[in-house]
Amino acid sequence: MDEEYDVIVLGTGLKECILSVLMSISGKKVLHMDRNNYYGAESASMTPLEDLFRHFNKDGDASKYGRGRDWNVDLIPKFIMAKGELAKLLIHTNVTRYLEFKQIEGSYVYKKGGKIYKVPSNDKEALGSSLMGIFEKRRFRNYLLYNTNYDEKDDKTHQGVDATKFTAKDLYKKFGLDQNTQDFVGHAISLYRNDEYITQPVLEQIKKNQLYYESLSSYGKSPYLYPLYGLGELPQGFARLSAVYGGTYMLDKTCDKIVCEDGKVVGVKSEGETAKCKMVICDPSYVLEKVKKVGQVVRAICLLNHPIANAGNSSCQIIIPQNQVNRKNDIYVSCLSHTEAVASEGYFIALVATTVETDYPEGELSHGLNLLEPILEKFVSVSDLYEPTDTGEKSRIFISSSYDATTHFETTSDDVKDMYKRITGENFDFSKVKSNLDDQNEGEENQ
After folding, report:
1. Which listed residue, 161, 302, 326, 395, has the most CB atoms within 10 A of its CB?
2. For 46-105+293-385, CATH number?
3. What is the pTM of this model?
4. DSSP readout, 328-367?
5. H or E stretch at 361
């Protein structure tokens, strides 16, 4: 421990592991510590199943659900957009060499009355969808084609719309989309968490819609991917890669104190020893004095012996738009099975999550939980959401934000990019990382 490092990373959550790799690749000497004896921190996967029962202090016989080792239950399950930022990062950093992915079978949206509908995968499927009436289908098809054909550099594709000034609401009006269609577009395709986007310039939404359909076109059934054996494989994959580039990992290692002098970090004290460093990267739990609580997330992990009705036979995501259930925030539902190597054969793991709005958090999940009945086991948690109050510019302590209620990784990727810019002063450049890796691999081959 009595060494000097460029970077000490605290916590092995996915964000911290990604940044650990990026720092290692850039040639920095990295020490990565976690107070837990497993990877993933709050986003870990629980295996065997008995560990899930213990984690939630719940009585019950886990053995009746098959072999415990067949289960890998994510505490915060999320899916990867096939063409999204995290997928690019996995490819460019070559972490894919350690992982295998499955496509999520379907993406669905909830409509008032309790029914779920498949999100149309293209303009032809839109015309056949029972989600909309016949005239609305054609209006949505025209809207969809406009979004997919839009090219920021080609005025001919703009149809007179200045997307830097036109709002999302304006574009919906231009194509005559009704409220229900706006809900499923904004929340199940654009993946906005609430309706604040509606008055913002529409360019960002057009790009989000294009990302969704580019990801969908890669595989056809849904735009989402998921790693076999659970999300716990992701931080471990990044950790292995960081080690290749010289990173040092220590699990089950407490952080007693982050040592600062004149308001700037100089080291981390653990078990009587101090490791010197020039910066610290960590999750909020290590620096509660430097974060603020901005809300809460309620999650219910449920074990089922059946797939979700009307949502295919194995994996899916269902988004319940806020307006459809008179809320301010969306409700998210995901489902996985033995097909993704996370459950015993014949069983399913479903999650329902949302941002807390009342004094009865579990009750806010009712619309999602009703879709899952009957439920064999239910594990409910309420987690505080934290954001850093310190950018890290002066203190050189760079803090991630808590994981939100979404069941996809787009907001996680945004946080990583934001932290990278705060740390380096530069925007994250995928091509630069690719180049560095190619140089490194070439060097290894020549040795």
Report:
1. 302
2. 3.30.519.10
3. 0.91
4. SS-EEEEEEEGGGTSS-TT-EEEEEEEE--SS-GGGGGHH
5. none
